[in-house]
Structure formats: structure tokens, C-alpha cells
Design the sequence.
């Protein structure tokens, strides 16, 4: 109840920001502190909060890599951002995150760029008609396809956030979150997540099953 009232009232937390803060506001003070060679991969950047996240990060000088299933929409987003920010660097790859082969191809293409991966933001809602379940009836399609990209191009996912471009951008760029790992943020402030999300044994179990599933897929000969 207390958190709900804080959200509705837009009361700022310890970070100085709250639910009423915009992505531009929470990154304004970071503008002069952001290194010039940061690279971010943003999925789901062709609609909703993904577009705003991409725009604000580009405005702060971050190089964007956007995997997108719809190249036309991705090109429109790129054009819109570069119209506002002419020097924005944006690279688009045709990628279907529900397809293992497509994710693997994107990973290889990204590695070929020789760029660092400083920021990984997932805004994508992934749906597949060919659902695959573990022995414990855990739906593994999302984990297989999305975590495969982490398997290829990142060592770990440092932070997670609630929905909203302001929180995502704050966590991505604020010096206050530098060195912070494995935490959950809501309304630009560190927050508590569910009991299930804090269950280390369940997390390890899911991770082991996901890695085993990925390994089997990797060892399969191409169709």
C-alpha cells in the first residue's frame, strides 16, 4: 500500500527521482559523464518504451544496436532519432528473437562488429507457437532464445528494472548504479522483488536447465 501511494504521488526516492520522472530528466546529469564508446543492445526498440529508451540513450551519446524483426519499423525509428540527434550511431540487424537460428546469427553478427557490449536492455515480448517445457513444466522457449544471446555476447545481466524508460535509462547510465549487480529497480530506485525471484535454489535450477537446453540446441546439426 505504501509503495502504491508513493507511486501515485510521484514521490522521489533516495535517488532523487520517482514515478513522475522522465527518462531525459534522470539522465540529464549523466550527459557529461557518459564515456564516448558505450554500446547498447536494445530489443523491442521499435515500439513503446523501447523507442523512448533508444532515443534517450542516443541523446546521451550511446551507440545503439537494434535487433528487429520488422526492418521497416526499425528504419523509421532510426530515422526519427537521427532527425533529432544527427550524430546518433544506430546499427540495425534483422532478428527474430523467437527463432534460435536468428538469435545465433545476430550474436555472430554483433561479435563481428568488434564493439564492446556495455548495456543490454530487453524490452521484447517474445511469443512462440512451438512452446518447449522442462521436466518440471517450466516454459523454456523464452529462456532458450533470449538467454542464448547472453550466452554468446555477454557475461552476465547486472540489473533488472520495472517497466518504464526512465528507470531503464537511469540504471543504464547513472553513476549511482555503477558497480551495482543483481539488483531490482522500480521508479529509478532500488527496490524489493518477489519472494520467488529471490529464491536462489529456483534460480540455479532454472539456469542449469536453460544451459542444458541451449547446449543441446548448439550441438544439433543445422537443418
Sequence:
Amino acid at each position: 500500500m505504501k509503495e502504491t501511494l508513493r507511486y501515485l504521488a510521484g514521490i522521489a526516492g533516495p535517488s532523487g527521482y520517482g514515478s513522475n520522472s522522465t527518462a531525459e530528466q534522470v539522465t540529464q546529469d549523466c550527459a557529461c559523464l557518459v564515456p564516448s564508446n558505450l554500446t547498447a543492445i536494445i530489443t523491442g526498440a521499435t515500439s513503446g518504451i523501447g523507442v523512448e529508451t533508444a532515443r534517450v540513450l542516443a541523446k546521451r551519446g550511446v551507440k545503439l544496436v537494434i535487433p528487429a524483426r520488422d526492418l521497416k519499423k526499425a528504419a523509421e525509428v532510426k530515422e526519427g532519432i537521427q532527425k533529432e540527434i544527427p550524430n546518433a550511431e544506430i546499427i540495425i540487424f534483422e532478428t527474430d528473437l523467437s527463432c534460435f537460428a536468428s538469435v545465433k546469427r545476430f550474436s555472430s553478427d554483433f561479435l563481428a562488429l568488434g564493439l564492446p557490449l556495455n548495456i543490454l536492455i530487453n524490452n521484447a515480448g517474445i511469443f512462440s507457437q512451438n512452446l518447449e517445457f522442462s521436466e518440471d513444466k517450466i516454459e523454456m522457449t523464452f529462456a532458450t532464445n533470449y538467454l542464448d544471446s547472453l550466452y554468446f555476447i555477454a557475461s552476465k545481466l547486472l540489473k533488472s528494472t520495472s517497466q518504464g524508460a526512465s528507470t531503464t535509462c537511469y540504471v543504464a547510465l547513472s553513476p549511482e548504479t555503477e558497480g551495482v549487480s543483481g539488483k531490482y529497480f522500480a521508479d529509478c530506485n532500488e527496490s524489493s522483488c518477489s519472494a520467488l525471484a529471490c529464491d536462489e535454489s529456483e534460480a540455479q535450477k532454472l539456469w542449469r536447465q536453460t544451459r542444458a537446453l541451449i547446449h543441446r540446441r548448439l550441438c544439433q546439426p543445422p537443418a
Notes: Strands lie at 39-43, 63-68, 90-94, 119-122, 159-161, 183-186, 189-191.
